[in-house]
Amino acid sequence: MTLNVSAIIRLLSPELILLITAFVVIGVDLARRRQDDGRTAATVAVVGLLLAAFASVLLYLSQPGEIVLFTMAIDVYGLFFKTAAFIGIALVIIGSVNFMAGRSKYLGEFYALLVFAALAISVAVSATNLILVYIGIEFLSITSYILAGFLRGDKRSEEAAIKYFLYGASAGAILLFGLSILYGVTGTTDMATIGDLLLRSDSAHWLGLVALMMVLAGIGYKASLVPFHQWAPDTYDGAPTPVSAFLSTASKAAGFAVLGRVILTAFPQFQPDWTQILGAIAVLTMFLGNLTALKQKSVKRMLAYSSIGQAGYILLGLAAVNASPDFGGVNGLMIYLFGYIFTNIGAFLLLLAIEKKSGGSTDMEQFDGLATRSPVIALLMAFFLISLAGVPPTAGFLGKFYVFAAVMNQQMLVLGALAALNTVIAAFYYLNVIRHMYFSESTVEGGVSASKGLMTVLVVNAVMILAIGVFAQFFMVWVNNSVTMLVANGF
Amino acid sequence: MDLLRSSVLTLIVFLPAVGSVIVALMPKEKEDLIKKFSIWWSVIPLLLTTWLAIDYATNFLRGNQMAYQAKFAWIPSIGVNYHVGADGLSVPLLFLTALLTTLGLYYSARVIRKRVKEFFLLFLLLATGMFGVFVSLDLILFYVFWEIGLVPMYFLIGIWGNPKDRPQYAAIKFFLYTLAGSIFMLLAMIGVYLSTGTFDILDAAAKGVWLNAPTFAMLSFWAFFIAFAIKVPSFPFHTWLPDAHTAAPTAGSVILAGVLLKLGAYGILRVLLSLFPGQFAQFGWIVALLGVIGIVYGAFVSLAQTDLKRLIAYSSVSHMGYIMLGIGAVGVALGMKNVAGAQESAAMAFNGASLQMFMHGIITGALFFLVGVIYERAHTRDLKVFGGLSAVVPVYYATMMFAGFASLGLPGLAGFWAEFFTFRGAFGIVPVLAVIGVIGIVITAAYILYRIIQSLFLGEFDPKRWDHWTTVFGEHADGPTDMALFEKVTLWPLVILMVLLGLWPTPLLAFFNEASVNILSSLHF
After folding, report:
1. Domains in chain B: how many in total?
2. Is A439 in contact with B115 (Cβ distance < 8 A)?
3. Domain assignment of residue B439, yes or no
4. How far, rounded to the nearest angstrom, does the alpha carbon of residue B225 sit from its chain's CA centroid?
5. How confident is the model over A263-305, as pLDDT tens digits?
6. Cα separation of B189 and A397, whole Å?
7. Residue of B nearest to A405 (CA)
């Protein structure tokens, strides 16, 4: 499909905006270095991200379905994830300005890297070509490695980055290997064509299966799926908290989005296989994440394991994918991720307020009696945790409802029962934090305080969580619309 | 009038939530204002439910219909609606909820001294959850309110529970037990949709659920049943109850016993019976059996308690067993269509179970208030330290006598009719179980008379046995003081109801009979 230049510019406007923003952020930072703690750079980054999100929404409303430059699908599926990721990253930046100020000399670079990461996500979720999938994922990885280790001199931040890097590099190699097998079997790098060719060739089945496993490993690590998760706890725990918020939400969402597109366009005829495989991985991910989270003493580390457990629920949507317009699985995955982005960013960024008071610790004791010391912060945290636990009327409930419904729709009763069991396990450790905040006597004196920016982000997140749960139809129309296009295009 | 009728349920459900938002905006130093506001605000739903009862009785009885319906699309893409309505089964329970909420707030205004703002905020929010369950006609809406009621109660137990009773443990146990049941119920609700294409309880019941898939029908039945049985709680899912009731603050225990337990029984009658009549006929005997085990076991365990509050908590297990027995008998009767008299017996059992829901609410509500009365003075609930209080606190004694005798089913008081109808119905359907269940009545008499009346009130009062008396307001006192005005105001409405309904249960029975006729006939019984 050939498009003229102006059409291409229009379709790629979010990416172009981000590219320009990233360079402007670096430029602004050069000009204003050390004068304002990076506030100008952060402002520019946020404005750029929100503009890009706005551009994505505009594009979404025009219902495009074009393939640009033979490699990128500008469709509603990708645009949905782009919008969510851009908004999420913008929230992370707003919430972290005060935290980052004074912690690093390279604030402009920090915000620029987050914008570059947004660009990487944008490329990855649109990619319809194996090469671009790889480039998108690697681009995202490299920005993430630097972000995870951004606080040089902080041993745990460095460890987080090294671990993530070593793991990511191997995963990248495996991904590339898998993609090369696909190319070897089919002679093309276009995923839709690969899907077609694999469908026609029986002999390629087992090779396709090997490639599928490798792709799963290579992309699954981004989504912190067990057994490709080993980097995640230490990285989420050790990275600067805003980066953990980013890695566990926007970056993870990108992993799921890419995985969904690759599987649905290149491997549709393998559905019986990957239903089994993904189902098993989902169960492992849920159990490992939730059971390990039970024993954590630090809330940040608990949230790290919790976000592994959450990845298990999200994967259920993909494992149970089907053609039903109500509970097709992919719509569950998308609404779950959409709500989860706001919930988890809220929970992680709230830790900034705790860390500021305690000097870095997020141990349970820091939360003791928080409800009497800082009622608003405690209420927000309780709300985020209740959403993570999946109690209505929050976004967390809506997401769980839709993925569970997809599982039931496929009559995978055992999977549904195990997921339900995990919800109960998870409720225990989420409520445990609430217990410390509301039931325990304070062991620490004085309230915690959040900067204006952080407070704004937390309140916005809480409002969004409630809005998604209450005005579910509004969001589900968006989501269902995105899925219809994807199904029509490929699956 | 039509506008009022279509919006009254929505007002009843959401006014308390609006109230809790208003409380949240008040400065927490103004405790008096918060208390007064909450109490008066809760009177509005009370008046509305009273009007509702009168209006329903005059206009809708013998109409065989779900009244006051309102229906708006909520998530139209999957057919989830905001659909509310009330019939003879829900109207009395709405009134009970409103009454106990107002009384609980009024009582708490005098005895809750720490974190006042949060308490009243959560108490109002709790009312929204309970009202919502009683009016929901959509499964997802039902689930949402079911869970909304869970969260405030968790906080009420955990924060204001007595530190000696391990409130944090009790609170988490309460939450996890209920959640474990309800999450599987959610899966079964999704199954109902996949089978019938609707989440509407009335529509799904009309279409029939999993008619051609007996395995799914059975699994769904048990998923719903266990969720409700945990809430009731029925033996063997009752173990959270003694902990939660004992640990909760007085008003919390009252709401827990008075209303929250009824949510489970209500769910069985409203949802399970309508959606899975076939499975109910098949497994009704298990329900009845669990009920009977609960009756006898609960009564024996009560007899062994030395802690007054724990005793009453276990008595709830026993009394909720009557409800399960009645409901189970209805189920068994569904499979006995051709047996003469089964239909009448089923209606009796249904009426008995629903009467027991209401009666247990006022009686056990009163009993938990009465525990609060003595605990605020003696700061212990150990029955061994009391004795001979009848001469010292005659008003308290008299009130306890009314509640105690009502609880053991003395004719002329409210509890009698519930037990009478339950056993009359059950005898016609599951005679053996009913006979075993009657043992429970005898033991109930034993623990009420022997444990409560004798150890608290009879004998000589010995001031040396316990010397930590205060007045209810926390001032030092040399011995027990009789009920204060606010305690009388809290308790006597309940006592009056016990007497009135004991002498003349007909008006209340008319509501429930309406519901039983309506529900049973919709099952083509």
Report:
1. 1
2. no
3. yes
4. 17
5. 998 988 888 888 999 999 999 999 999 999 999 999 999 999 9
6. 14
7. B190
